[in-house]
Amino acid sequence: MCVPARIIVCLLRNDLRFHDNEVLLWAHRNADYIVPLYCFDPRHYLGTHHYNFPKTGPHRLKFLLESVQDLQNTLKKRGSNLLLKRGHPEDIIEDLIKQLGPVSAVAFQEEATKEELDVEKSIKQVCTRHGVKVHLIWGSTLYHRDDLPFRHISSLPDIYTQFRKAVETQCKVRPTNQMPEQLKPLPAGLEEGSVPTLEDFGQQDPLSDPRTAFPCSGGESQALQRLDYYFWDTNLVASYKDTRNGLIGMDYSTKFAPWLACGCISPRYIFEQIRRYEKERTANQSTYWVIFELLWRDYFRFVALKYGSRIFFLRGLQDKDVPWKKDQQLFDAWKEGRTGVPFVDANMRELAMTGFMSNRGRQNVASFLTKDLGIDWRMGAEWFEYLLVDYDVCSNYGNWLYSAGIGNDPRENRKFNMIKQGLDYDGNGDYIRLWVSELQQIKGGDVHAPWALSNSALSHANVTLGKTYPLPIVMAPEWSRHVNQKPQDSGAAPAKRGKGPSYTPKHHRNRGIDFYFSRNKDV
Ligand SMILES: Cc1cc2nc3c(=O)[nH]c(=O)nc-3n(C[C@H](O)[C@H](O)[C@H](O)COP(=O)(O)OP(=O)(O)OC[C@H]3O[C@@H](n4cnc5c(N)ncnc54)[C@H](O)[C@@H]3O)c2cc1C
Ligand SMILES: Nc1ncnc2c1ncn2[C@@H]1O[C@H](COP(=O)(O)OP(=O)(O)OP(=O)(O)O)[C@@H](O)[C@H]1O
């Protein structure tokens, strides 16, 4: 009797890589033929939920198209291919099932949020109708969901530190999966389809801005190169903790986020490379701190599992009644970088021009929007959703809730002081002058508060407040304490706090993580 060939369709979404790809590996072990599939889902290109910004902006779209192309090239080298389709995955999968005859399973990596889970539900319905098995794999986080040391996801702590300590002491990161040299082939008769262009989506190439902190392309190959650069070629990872609050250039932080968001790099692979680096070169607070940050990423994904759609609710996780405003004029000034507060404006212009903003910048502009302007935090979250090249639904909404004071921040009423932050992290004002050309002629840290300058200083710098550069749309009383404070050191944080960016790589002695925790309070 002839046994029918086993065909498995692998729907790839945010796992656009070959290395450590459990979906492809499972299919390889269980099928005679594999159909790796990527769908350009039109729902990703509509408007955001409340404020109708384009859901996927040009920087991220470009990055995504490059990532898809890179994966298709890699899979071809591995005896496979990537089928590219435009449409709803559930419809495309149904068509494939009809076209291919008996499909034994559809496999994909699970997501955590409503829109993605709705797609999964529709795929399951299609598969049930056709008697096809669905195989789900959890793979987006460093720690596997099933290894968490909590009886049920509802017992996930609401405080990050408690989560981190529990996983660090009670769980192990699973090893990466060894992939085969060659994958099982595609069945005959399928057309691969070509990668669409930005114009196909009605968008234009966002020309690269020479000032960008993220001048990289999408795709697994680029992600792996970046890791080699940051770890092995330059040892930048060994000074990450000292530089991570920087604002200018490629090297102050890993820049892994855009690749992690598309799944071009596996967090477990990063983890293994850190461990290898620690063994072969040096282990210090910085090498540990990359893992510490990756755990934030895990945490927000698990928070989304715990709270479901509540991560998108106006009242947040805490069900807090905050009288948010929806003032369009104030919001427009924020999003266009013309609030009259240089530190905010520089960051918002960088985001619009490049699709990237540093973590320090994101915390500040989010605090400014929600705490200084009192604007509906979802306006900010949706603006980021539109523009960020590294947009990740859980990290974005989780961080916005946190910044708005209705998420996982245990501290009450945390608010950043824009002037103090500007002086702490951009003491000499170089970052402001990079993005706010109107203020280019104001020297040093004075550029953080142009309204405090004398008329003669302003006219000397060719600045007319209210004309060439706006007056601040809001003024917080606590700013005045810092307005005349000169930075103690150009580009570096004031020594007393010792936490600003230092661009000189320091090679720490490995004093152990326990030593570290006995000295530092957690965020
Ligand atoms: C309001 C706001 C919105 C944000 N939106 C996103 C988003 O959509 N996508 C996203 O990946 N990050 C988001 N972040 C977190 C953080 O700003 C970015 O991950 C980081 O700036 C990306 O640069 P990097 O890869 O060089 O980070 P690094 O400093 O090199 O950190 C290494 C990795 O750790 C993870 N990480 C670091 N900080 C955080 C954090 N606070 N939360 C979750 N993961 C973290 C990221 O995966 C990052 O790639 C947001 C932060 C804020 C305050
Ligand atoms: N992946 C995602 N990215 C962005 N937003 C999402 C995602 N998944 C779900 N949401 C949003 O989560 C929210 C909650 O969805 P739900 O259907 O429960 O509420 P809703 O009734 O649509 O909300 P509202 O009453 O505010 O219009 C919606 O705003 C939805 O668009």
TrEMBL record:
Residues 6-142 form the Photolyase/cryptochrome alpha/beta domain. Its cofactor is FAD; (6R)-5,10-methylene-5,6,7,8-tetrahydrofolate. Keywords: Chromophore, FAD, Flavoprotein. Binds 1 FAD per subunit. Residues 482-523 are annotated as: Disordered. Pfam families: DNA_photolyase (PF00875), FAD_binding_7 (PF03441). InterPro entries: Cry_DASH (IPR014133), Crypto/Photolyase_FAD-like_sf (IPR036134), Crypto/Photolyase_N_sf (IPR036155), Cryptochr/Photolyase_FAD-bd (IPR005101), Cryptochrome/DNA_photolyase_1 (IPR002081), DNA_photolyase_N (IPR006050), Rossmann-like_a/b/a_fold (IPR014729). The keyword Flavoprotein applies. The keyword Lipoprotein does not apply. It comes from the Eukaryota. NCBIfam families: crypto_DASH. May have a photoreceptor function. Belongs to the DNA photolyase class-1 family. This is Cryptochrome DASH.
